[in-house]
Write a structure and sequence with these properties.
This protein has three helices and eight strands, in the order E-H-E-E-E-H-E-H-E-E-E. With 136 residues, the chain is α+β, with helices and mostly antiparallel strands. It has a single domain, classed as Roll (2,3-Dihydroxybiphenyl 1,2-Dioxygenase, domain 1).
C-alpha cells in the first residue's frame, strides 16, 4: 500500500547561505549537517536537520539557474515541501487519475538512488510539493 510517511524537508530559497545561516543557525540554534554543491542544479544547499525532517537552504551559484530566476522573480522564501512516501509510482498514477497536475509523471532518480517527482502548485493549494522515495 502506498503511504505518506513524514515531511522529509522544507526547501527555502536564499540569496546567500552564509547570510541565511545568521538566522537559521545562529539565532535559532539549528545545527548544519553539511553544505553541498549541486552542480546539476547550479545551486549550493545547506542541510539543517530538525526532528524527523530538515530545512534545506538553497542558493543559486550562477545567474542563469532555475533557482536564480526564481529568486529574481519572487525573492527569497519557501520553495517546496517534500514528503517521503512509499509506492511513488502508484501514488503518481492515482494522482494523475484524479486530474492532479504533475510536473513529473514518472519519478526522476538522483545519483544517490533517491527517486522524486514534483506536483504542480496549481493542484496543491499554491505549494510546490516534492515526493521522495528512498530505496531500501
Ligand atoms: Zn527538495
Amino acid at each position: 500500500m502506498p503511504k505518506f510517511k513524514r515531511i522529509d524537508h522544507i526547501a527555502i530559497v536564499v540569496e546567500d547561505i552564509a547570510a541565511a545561516l545568521g538566522f537559521w543557525q545562529d539565532a535559532l540554534g539549528l545545527a548544519v549537517e553539511k553544505v553541498e554543491d549541486e552542480p546539476a542544479e547550479k545551486t549550493s544547499v545547506a542541510f539543517l536537520p530538525l526532528g524527523e525532517s530538515q530545512i534545506e537552504l538553497v542558493a543559486p551559484q550562477t545567474d542563469d539557474s532555475g533557482t536564480a530566476r526564481y529568486l529574481a522573480k519572487r525573492g527569497p522564501g519557501m520553495h517546496h515541501l517534500c514528503i517521503e512516501v512509499e509506492g511513488l509510482e502508484e501514488i503518481l498514477a492515482a494522482l494523475k487519475a484524479r486530474g492532479v497536475r504533475l510536473i513529473h509523471e514518472t519519478p526522476v532518480t538522483k545519483p544517490d538512488g533517491v527517486r522524486y517527482a514534483f506536483i504542480h502548485p496549481k493542484s496543491a493549494s499554491g505549494v510546490l510539493i516534492e515526493l521522495y522515495e528512498r530505496s531500501g
